[in-house]
Amino acid sequence: MSGVALVILILGFISNVSGALECYFCSGINGCQTGFEDNKTECRTQTSPRCYVARTEVNGHVTNFSRGCYEATQCNFICQWASPGDVTTTMCQECCNTNLCNTGSARGAGTFMTPIIHLLVGGTVMALAMSTATSK
User: Fold this and answer.
1) What is the pLDDT of residue 68?
2) I need a surface site. Which of 17, 25, 46, 125 has the fewest CB within 10 A?
3) Contacts (Cβ under 8 Å, ≥6 apart) of 64
């Protein structure tokens, strides 16, 4: 084997071993929920990179959507919601650690948990109101 071929073989092996995580990368509503497959990036700046997909909904309507790279410590695998007044905002995030794995919709627990939380909170308030009314 020639010296040049050996160097090329060794460099190819090294680049595969230390290769960066590849993730889909996009932001916004159009072209990020679907049709994102042509937008890819390599996560080279993170120490422990993860691919992510995140979505934000206000009153059940998607207002933001993004895919890209996060540091592992930024990945929470959760949904958070807030209901100030008549506005319900839900933010969900999913992370993964294999190439091009961030294809999901980041609906996560928010789809199911938000109604359950409202039911539990509403049930607790109603139970407290009933116990107060019956104790008078």
Assistant:
1) 96
2) 17
3) 27, 28, 29, 54, 55, 56
- CB of 71 closer than 8 Å to CB of 115: no
Residue that wins the pLDDT comparison between 100 and 45? 100
- Indicate yes or no: pTM above 0.85: no
Mean pLDDT, the chain, as a whole number?
75
Query: Which residues have CB under 8 Å from 87's CB, separation 6+?
Result: 58, 59
Token pair belonging to 99: 């190439």
Instruction: Tell me which fold the domain 19-127 belongs to.
Output: CD59 (2.10.60)
Q: What is the DSSP letter of 72?
A: G
- Per the document, the length of the chain is 136
What count of other Cβ atoms lies within 10 Å of the Cβ of residue 11? 10
